[in-house]
Specification:
By secondary structure, this protein is mainly alpha-helical. The chain has twelve helices and five strands. It has a three-stranded antiparallel sheet with strand order 1-2-3. α1 packs across α4, α6 runs antiparallel to α8 and α10 crosses α12.
Length: 309
């Protein structure tokens, strides 16, 4: 039978549907969908659930009404969250609600669907880091020549996400005996990728090639061992240290993540095809046709990257 507060998923026929609260729904959702997902999957689900429960209480799913949805939306905006963040939280709440109702055979409308959201509210335009700043930063990275600066160099000439770079294994750096040196971006037990499309190979050029060659002498199996401990990748710690160093060297409100925006603009500036840009950065492809075939070769990707470094 179903016991509240435990993650064991019950047989829907043995459950009183009115007993399943939102926290129970969260348990079911994570139990069935959380396997092999990144840590952020669990944390975002728990965060969204916490927001709802703080506003409306931990009620049975059949007890939530439209007023609970509008109260949650208004509360999130009052907290100062941007419209895009509020939309993400609602998408998670809707997913937990829908999944559990379908799984447990609960027939009740989802009150969190179809609510108006001002997606642009509080959203700031994320400007890329100018190329002149990037050149100076790359020069400083080579002068300092330590692991933090190597992370910066890797990110700014590959367009990788910071977590992807920090969680690299040494074996992901394919340099020796390779005609075209490259990085493999793949899942690891200590660092999962954001999406399936994030798995990719990125040719190494410019500052990223320098950093990768420097890392080859590491005695660790991790590229950045100070941020991979006890089976976890501590990207937030790296982000705090790097953004502090970066702050006086870039325009206001720019962070490590802006290198990723800049790479997209740098590739656009040399008239690179959007399909190639998506493959380099691990961005989701828009067109169905882009999902067919093996993608662009390392040689083709390197040629485009060399044009913008």
């Amino acid at each position: 039978r179903y016991v509240k507060g435990f993650c064991k998923v019950p047989d829907s026929e043995d459950v009183n549907k009115d007993d399943i609260t939102f926290s129970d729904a969260l348990d079911i959702y994570l139990k069935l969908k959380g396997n092999d997902k990144p840590v952020t999957f669990k944390s975002s689900a728990e965060r969204a659930s916490r927001y709802l429960i703080e506003v409306s209480g931990n009620k049975s799913l059949t007890s939530y009404k439209r007023g609970d949805a509008t109260s949650l939306r208004d509360n999130l905006f009052e907290r100062g969250l941007a419209g895009s963040s509020v939309v993400r939280i609602f998408n998670t709440v809707k997913a937990i609600f829908n999944f559990t109702c379908i799984e447990m055979g609960i027939e009740t409308p989802n009150p969190f669907i179809g609510l108006y959201m001002d997606r642009g509210r509080g959203v700031t335009v994320r400007k890329p880091i100018p190329i002149a700043n990037i050149r100076l930063i790359q020069s400083e990275c080579k002068k300092v020549n330590d692991d933090l600066r190597m992370i910066v160099a890797l990110v700014n000439d590959t367009g990788m996400r910071l977590s992807e770079a920090v969680g690299l294994a040494i074996d992901d750096l394919r340099i020796k005996n390779e005609e075209i040196p490259y990085i493999i971006v793949q899942n690891h037990p200590w660092r999962r990728l954001k999406t399936k499309g994030s798995e990719r190979r990125i040719p190494l050029v410019g500052a990223s090639l320098w950093a990768s060659q420097s890392l080859q002498n590491s005695d660790s199996s991790f590229a950045f061992p100070r941020y991979v401990k006890n089976g976890n990748c501590y990207t937030n710690s790296a982000s705090a240290a790097l953004n502090k160093w970066l702050r006086p060297r870039v325009p206001m409100n720019c962070s490590m993540h802006r290198f990723r925006h800049s790479m997209r603009d740098r590739l656009r500036s040399v008239e690179c095809q959007s399909e190639v840009i998506d493959q380099i950065g691990g961005w989701s492809s828009i067109s169905v046709g882009q999902k067919y075939g093996e993608g662009h070769s390392l040689l083709n990707l390197r040629n485009w990257l060399k044009k913008c470094v």
